[in-house]
Design goal:
about 0% helix; mainly beta; 11 strands; Rieske Iron-sulfur Protein; binds FE2/S2 (inorganic) cluster; globular
Length: about 140
């Protein structure tokens, strides 16, 4: 059981982004959000157009209003607790859930189908260039 973050790391009106590895080896982004019954985790893509991320990596994460996650492309809103969308282009669809558990203020990944890879989005991998990487170019 891997610790992802603390509950306090999850913005009240936004999302905490991390990356998991699927059984196929493929990387997938996941967001943590506050929901009515605690912390929920959803795969970070819209059900209308799966190449559209909900959390695009900006400070504070996905846009949220009144307990709903707002898709930045066409504005469909997904219930943070159930993942269900009852409006707009993604109407009738539900985000893909990832199992997490909160214990003593920490959020753990409890989903057997995926493995924790790293914080942040897929592009924020360990190999991310830092300020010195380009010296000698
Ligand atoms: S891509 Fe999200 S509502 Fe269209």
């Amino acid at each position: 059981m891997e610790r992802i973050a603390t509950v306090e790391d999850v913005p009240d009106h936004g999302s905490y982004l991390f990356t998991v590895t699927e059984p196929s080896g493929r990387k997938e982004e996941v967001i943590l959000v506050h929901a009515a019954d605690g912390i929920a985790a959803w795969k970070n893509f819209c059900m209308h157009e799966p190449d559209q991320r909900l959390d695009t990596g900006l400070e504070g994460g996905a846009a949220m209003r009144s307990g709903e996650i707002i898709c930045p492309r066409h504005g469909s809103m997904f219930d943070a607790e159930t993942g269900y969308c009852d409006n707009g282009d993604a109407k009738g669809q539900t985000l893909v859930e990832v199992d997490v558990t909160v214990r003593h203020g920490d959020v753990f990944l409890t989903d057997d189908a995926v493995e924790f890879a790293h914080d942040g989005g897929i592009d924020d991998d360990d190999g991310m260039p830092d300020s010195t990487s380009h010296i000698g170019f």
